[in-house]
Amino acid sequence: MGIYSFWMKNTLIPLDIAWIDVDGKIVDIIQAKANDLSILTPKAKSQYIIELNAGTANILNLNIGDKINIPQNL
Questions:
Q1: What is the total count of domains within the chain?
Q2: Is the pLDDT reported for residue 74 higher than 70?
């Protein structure tokens, strides 16, 4: 686990980025803008990161603290 930051250089579409810990708990979600050069840093350490089309986290009703099932063979 660690702190994994992102930026959106050369990313042409906005994204929702969700950071997930080793237990499958969402520790942060950030809505990232296309081509934004800002460094996006989560609030907590994570093991996994999911990138979704912008707005998908809201459609799926994903929130910080929610748990998702991550197969153990990843």
A1: 1
A2: no
Q: Which domain holds residue 21?
A: 15-57
| Edge-to-edge strands, sheet with 48-53 | 26-32, 15-20, 48-53
Is residue 69 one of the residues assigned to a domain? no
Quick one: tokens of 15? 């994204």
Q: Is residue 51 part of a domain?
A: yes
Task: Give residue 33's Cα distance to chain centre.
Answer: 13
The whole-angstrom distance between residue 21's C-alpha and the CA centroid of its chain comes to: 11
User: Considering the domain boundaries, does residue 20 fall inside one?
Assistant: yes
The token pair at 12 is 């042409």
Question: Tokens in use for 28?
Answer: 């942060």
| 4-48 per-position pLDDT tens digit | 999 999 999 999 999 999 999 999 999 999 999 999 999 999 999
pTM of the model: 0.90
